[in-house]
User: Fold Pentatricopeptide repeat-containing protein from Urochloa decumbens.
Amino acid sequence: MFSLHVLLQQCVRRRCLLIGKGCHALAIHLGLATDTITCNILINLYTKCGMNDCARHVFDAMTFKSIVSWNTMIAGYTCNGDDLQALKLFSKMHQEGAQMSEFTLSSTLSACAAKFAAIECKQLHTIAIKLALDSNSFVATAVLDVYAKCNMINDACLVFEKISEKTAVTWSTFFSGLVQNGLHEDALRLFQSSQREGVQLTEFTLSAILSTCASLALMTEGMQLHAVIFKYGFHGNFFVASSLVDVYARCGQIEQAYLIFAGMKHKNVVLWNAMINSFTRHGNFFEAMILFEKMQQARISPNEVTYLSMLSMCAHAGLVQEARCYFSLLISDQIVEPNVLHYSCMVDVLGRSGKTDEALELIQLMPFEPTASMWGSLLGSCRKYRNVGLARLAAEELFKLEPENGGNHALLSNVYAASGSWEDAVLARKYLNDSGAKKDMGLSWINTKGKVHIFGCEQKEELFV
Assistant:
């Protein structure tokens, strides 16, 4: 039995599924098919190899399930992206009154984070408090992560403050949560405070703070972080380098961004995407297309972000034919599944080039429900090309999806005005005023003396913009 367990553990480390199945057959032959330790190793093997169904078959056949059995199976579902099954299995475990550990809760909470399941997270948080596991670093960090991803940042802050022993993972998770919720200034201030306290730096922490510098276009802070990255030896990390490229590009330093990109000996798809997106942002469309070709020559397969960047570039550059080529390439890709954002970009490309009827046909044929951004893009195109009939259709859909957004009423009014339908334009504006819907106020910001100042200007809107 000991020799079999050692061999199975080796199969787990090396992901040797074929030999592992042979060991499974031997275990059945030796009458060890229901032995708890043997089954736990087999479950671990099958889940590590992505064979959740085989692992579950072993799990269900066990006469006695230890806490390791439950934890391994739940973690397997979570790691393989089957988050719903992980939550269902945890529910079954809870109903059967099985013992739980911090690993049980942290794995299940990770499934909640992937599903943005805020209610389930609150329930798990309550269970953790009852079991006195809420102060455990793994559990508390997992709870913090879910709250942040579910836009419950105040709850995340409370959890963070109550963690007595904050690990580097806890800090980086909280930084990422603040950035995800748009609290860039808070993230930057907290990072500065954490460095004064001597908190350990990780590539995840640096990537999150670099994202803040990129979002606020903080050139000075970005350069300081660049020096810190070199000092601590993180300059060869893919994710840190990608974030640095983004910082320099957003601060207008596209040459410096490219130097960082070119200086990386090995490049992954994230780094290629960061550079392509940087070229696109600066209007260097030809360079972006060349980089896309070089990426394929380097045998790096484009992912959904790559295609999104290329389609977005085509929309802003008015490259209809090129957009069709990239979209066809995406549709024929055997690995990447086109999503609603890709279709939205393609609708934008067609609308901007005056092919509004073709854009409508694409919306009607796509395998997704149309989003507000699609109809908004189409409505904006109708204003330029004075397609009043299609504008009415797009506006009606927008009113259903965004009844509180007054900008859609104003945009419809502008379509009427551009086509000379003055009475309809006045009626659209009147409906906007009567409905109580409001346009979002535009905001600007300026960085001066080390502080970011955000301001807006509220003025009486003219009848036609």
User: Anything to note?
Assistant: Residues 459-465 have pLDDT under 50 and may be disordered. The CA atoms of residues 27 and 33 lie 6 Å apart.
